Amino acid sequence: MKPIKTDEQLASAIYSVNRHAKTATDNKYLYELKRLTIEKMIETGRAKKLGLHFVEKPRYSQQQSSVLIQCADYYFHLLPKKEDFQNLTHLGHLDENYRNPQRRMSLNMAKQLLSEYTGLHPSIVKRNPSLASTSKAKTQPIKKKSYTFGSTYLD
């Protein structure tokens, strides 16, 4: 039997994965791992939705909201679902002065802990793109054309 992970361990692992996902080149797996872990924690009563916040830099200049979620002594944001707008109160703008606790956990340890908790592994996300966010189409590199001139201005 696997040892039960504490809420603090899971929240610290989510924090570590979230921090790395913001700078990773391929962050689909990390964000999917975060989302599934938080959703499972909410279903089991280990985390709770507190309300909605305005997104600081919304896409396409339209106002957007995100769901504020509390896991142990950490706070995270996820994209809202339709029912969240009906069931949760809007808290307004994000408090810029609050920061999550600074605990260190290696990315490999955090990914292992969360993938054991959720059952999600990188190979599952790669095989089933519907689990991950929308994929960007691969673009071909543009070949530069070189121009050679037969004569110069000074001829």
From TrEMBL:
Superkingdom of the source species: Bacteria
InterPro entries for the chain: YkyB (IPR025552)
Annotated protein name in UniProt: YkyB-like protein
